[in-house]
Amino acid sequence: MSFLFPMVFWIGLPLVALPLVIHLLNLRRQQRIPWAAMEFLLESQERSKTWINLKELILLLLRTAAIALLVLLLARPTTRSGWIGRLLNRPVHHLIVLDDSYSTTDRWAETTAWKESLGAVRDITDAAADQSTASMITVLRFSEAEVESEDPRPAIFRRPLDAKSRQELISRIETAQPSDTASGILPALRRAAELASLQPAEQDLVVHIVSDFRQHTMEELDTIQQAVASLEAQATEVQFVRTVRQAHENLAITHLAPASGIRAAGVEMWMELSVENYGSTLARDVVVELEQDGSPLVAVPVGDVQAGAKVDRRFRATFVGSGAHWLAGNLDADAVDLDNRRVYATQVPEAQKILLVDGSPKRWESYYLSTALAPGSIKSGWQPEVVTPKEFSKLGSLYPYAAIAILDVPRLSADDLTRLTTFVSDGGGLFITLGESIDREFWSGEAFAAGEGLMPAPPDLPTQWLPSRDDSEGPVADIRVVDHPVFGIFRGERNSMLSLMRINYYYSLKRGWQTENTTDVKTIAKLTDGSPLVVENHFGQGKVVAQLSKVSPDQGNLGSWTNFGMNPAFVVLANELFGYLANGANADHVLTVGEPVRMPLDRNQYVGSGTISRMGKGTPYQATLAADSTTEAMAIVSEPIDRAGLYKLQIDRAAGGIETRLAALNPEPGEGNLQLIADATLRQKFASEQFGLRYADELSSEANPSESNWTEVLLTLLVLALVAEQAMAYACSFHE
Question: Are 646 and 618 in contact (CB under 8 A)?
Answer without folding.
Answer: no
